[in-house]
Amino acid sequence: MGKAKRLNLDVVKKSKPRSSHMILASHSNLKYRETLPIQWGAKTPQARGPVVASLTDAKARNAIGAHSGSYTVYRALSIASGKFPSLHRPDLKNTQSPVKLGPFPQWFDPTKIVTLDPWGLDPAIHFKALYAQGYDIRPSIAVTQAHLQIPEIEQAIDAGRLKVDGKIVRSNRDVRVTKVAIEPVWYLPGMAARLKVDEGELRKILFQETGGMYPDFITRPDLKVWLPPIGSTTVYIFGNPLELCDKSVPLTARVHDECNGSDVFGSDICTCRPYLMYGIEDAARQAQNGGVGLIAYYRKEGRALGEVTKFLVYNARKRQEGGDTAETYFHRTECVAGTEDARFQEFMPDTLHFFGIQKIHNLHSMSNMKYDAIVNSGIAVENRISIPEELIPKDAMVEIEAKKAAGYFTRKPVKPREELKKVRGRRIDE
Ligand SMILES: [Zn+2]
Predict the structure, then answer these.
(1) What is the pLDDT of residue 280?
(2) Mean pLDDT of 379-392
(3) Which of 21-35, 85-99, 296-310 has the lowest mean pLDDT?
């Protein structure tokens, strides 16, 4: 009780004590009157119904999993240590988005967006009446505004490529942005359709491959939404976010998959940070020239194989007979991981559809998988922009030549197989 006393009294009054009763295998007969139906893609937020995944009232839950992606595990540790009140309900006052995004037509198409919940942005506004009834509906999307201070942007200003305009780039060289955090909220029937598999089969594989972590996949076929324990997606917008949906406003966009080694630490074995920074520079320039810029950052480290696999591959590449060459670049990943790439780009455009995007005028990406996914989802792409040669670190030439030879987009000549053998990276001890 000592801990409960420290909680906000209003909050304690509203929420019932969390039960310590554990259900080891739940069943579909555990349906309650309080559980609201979800009609994915419905015409109004009320008809769609909120995704309720909070744990303060088990009877109201209508989704598998819990909020905050991989941080659910840290939250559990914090609760276990007694530092985190498990009954806490967020006070959402003043947390709303500074810009009113949506709704866009894509929000009402159950097939366009299946891996995020557009109504997870400011649910306190969309589901006001339900809060009054005591429902604990949590946001899964948040929007805020910020200033960026980036060395590469300073260099671009010094080199005269980017100007200080006092609006997008402030006089102190800060870049103004709107940033958006999007937690994954997966609608399983829509995902199964996009993967072209049976929903039951998808549920079975998700259950098995997570080591049986979510029995509800099997026992609760009535629950169609899952909040997976994975990373979120972050979007940085340059210029007016409300113009992203206007196809007559030029849009420069980069869809970037996380690479901690390069993005954060500046490791030179790949082109990730240089390409990301070039994207930011170009997105800011586009915003200054009457357009809008967008960088979407997906937490898919090491081609969604993870950083441990990635580092093992680096070692295997650098120790192989004949050294690290562009010719064997993809093969080495496949040897270690079982596949050269575990990313499934078909879900990536969901983030773009959230903003109502219909056309990308300049797409910063050389990946055909990304390009095809975007175009097949109904978004037009005018130009594709490769990373400029002068930005490629020397040790990353292996990656870039291998990618070009494998069909990644480039306007430059592609090296024949014999030439790829000559594109060498450092040895492991260099
Ligand atoms: Zn990288």
Answers:
(1) 98
(2) 93
(3) 21-35
In angstroms, the CA 283 to CA 243 distance is: 14
Is the pLDDT assigned to residue 156 strictly greater than 90?
A: yes
Q: Is 341 left (phi over 0), alpha (psi -120 to 50) or beta?
A: beta
Question: Cβ of 196: how many Cβ atoms within 10 Å?
Answer: 7
Give the number of other CB atoms < 10 A from CB of residue 3: 12
Give tens-digit pLDDT for 48-87: 999 999 999 999 999 999 999 999 999 999 999 998 888 8
- In tens, the pLDDT along 235-294 reads 999 999 999 999 999 999 999 999 999 999 999 988 999 999 999 999 999 999 999 999
Burial of 172 (0-12, 13-18, 19+ CB in 10 A): exposed
Unique residue bearing structure tokens 């991981």? 337
DSSP-assigned beta bridge partners for residue 360: 381
Share of the chain above pLDDT 70, in %: 93
Q: Which of 61, 220, 273, 343 is catalytic?
A: 343
pLDDT for position 16:
53
- Nearest-angstrom CA–CA distance, 93 and 231: 26
Which H helix or E strand runs over 14? Answer: helix 9-14
Q: Tell me, in angstroms, the distance from the centre of ligand 1 to residue 399's CA.
A: 9
> H helices of 355-425, where?
368-376, 397-405, 417-420
pLDDT of residue 413: 86
Element housing 157 (H / E) = helix 151-158
Contacts of 53 (CB under 8 A, 6+ apart): 61, 62, 63, 65, 66, 67, 138, 225, 227
Q: With 50 as the cut, is the pLDDT of residue 2 above it?
A: no
- Please give the distance, rounded to the nearest whole angstrom, from the Cα atom of residue 102 to the centre of ligand 1: 33
How does DSSP assign 251-320, residue by residue? EEEEEEE--HHHHTT--SSSSHHHHHHHHHHHHHHHHHTTSEEEEEEE--HHHHT-HHHHHHHHHHHHHS
What's the CA-to-centroid distance between 302 and ligand 1, angstroms? 7
In 3D space, the residue among 146, 154, 409 whose CA is nearest the CA of residue 277 turns out to be: 154
Residue of 341, 411, 424, 427 marked active site? 341
Provide CB contacts within 8 A for 25, sequence distance 6+: 215, 219
